[in-house]
User: What shape does this take?
Amino acid sequence: MSFILQVSNLVKSFGSLTAVRDVSFEIRQGTCFGLLGPNGAGKTTTIEMMEGIKTPDAGTIMYQGEALGTQFRNEAGIMFQNTALQDFITVREIMIQFSRFYPDTASIDELAEQFALHDFLDQDTRKLSGGQKQRLLLAMALINKPKIMFLDEPTTGLDPQSRRNLWRQVQQVKEEGATILLTTHYMEEAYELCDEIAIMDHGRIIAHDAPDALLAAHFDDVVVQIQAADIPRDIGEREFQAIYRNDSAHIVTGDVNRTIEHLLHLDIPLNHLRIRARNLEDLFLELTGKELRG
Assistant: This one.
């Protein structure tokens, strides 16, 4: 499988702040590549350089073996995190408008069918719901039949049903041959969609591999989860080094039987006990820390 995009030794500074520090990775054709990181990690700046919006201070970005140019602009589709649609025009009109930016475009009717836009094609863009707008923006990113797509937090603000519907549409786009670069703060989304992920922090790539390979490399334990109301915080933290989050106590253990025996010895009720494998959220917090970023 060949590489469609190669990023080598990217550096970008803003005054005294170096936002991106010697970042390198390659994206295989036909895959979904996730770029993850906390706020301020440098991922947005990295993506904007890859999209051709910002110019690197150092390093190179190669698309199909060549520097970014006309071919890349014609073959790249971008779904920005925030896009202001033009007011007082219909969904159909804005899709026609965008189609005129490219020499080769997809059928608007076919995109409308694929993303269930037909019911509001003649509706003012100001009247779209959040889910309808996201489906429209994804369709617009596909209007030039792109070979590579950039999806910047595409499901932010969507309800769970709309989010999973968009996942199915992104998976379909990949199955049809497009390469996808995805950013998201939803770790479940990254695990569901991405063939590879790179985690950034403080301007650098700190982990890069397939999601399951990263989890296997970093964890050989599981999480025993109990309702916080069932295990007093002083006992949980003293006896198990439990972490309290979202009304639950999370106990990381490499020996489940021994942990459960100790819980029973302390008369902790196990009616709501749950055992789960470590996930990408655990890995993300392990690598980047638990403190809130500005």
Remarks:
- The chain has two domains: 3-216, 220-277.
- The chain has a mean pLDDT of 93.
